């Protein structure tokens, strides 16, 4: 069996305990908990009212406003984290190295905010008012796709 050498040259993280790898690691070592009351939506009807939420996240330093409007939060996390990773690695993707750089991001589920918004719009205003961008923002492979585009 032959093995392919892989070198990790940069790290990044967007987590409930830090918006970058350094602060996430520092808070992890301090025992800081990222678990708290859910603030992204009303939980009064639910048994669970706590979660690990990413707070104070602002992708606008990395992504233009027009692009942000069409990106769900989970995709913003992936794009910003990918850009921070490249900064940390000191890697600039150029025509000379682009074919040797890849993007692998595991994402099981995302875009639930888009689904909820679209469902509400459908019920209140009918199918013609549902955004044509609903499916593209909803699909989980949008995170690695947009990360590839922006990096």
Tell me about this structure.
The protein is mainly alpha-helical. A two-stranded antiparallel sheet has the order 1-2. The protein has a domain at 59-150. Helix 3 (73-89) crosses helix 6. It is built from six helices and two strands; from the N terminus they run H-E-E-H-H-H-H-H. The chain is globular, with a radius of gyration of 18 Å. The model has no long low-confidence stretch (mean pLDDT 92).
Total helices: the number is 6
In angstroms, what is the radius of gyration? Answer: 18 Å
Biggest sheet record: 2 strands, antiparallel
| H-E string | HEEHHHHH
Write the layout of secondary structure elements.
Layout: H1 21-30, E1 35-37, E2 50-52, H2 65-69, H3 73-89, H4 112-125, H5 134-138, H6 142-150
Antiparallel strand pairs: 1-2
Helix pairs in contact: 3-6
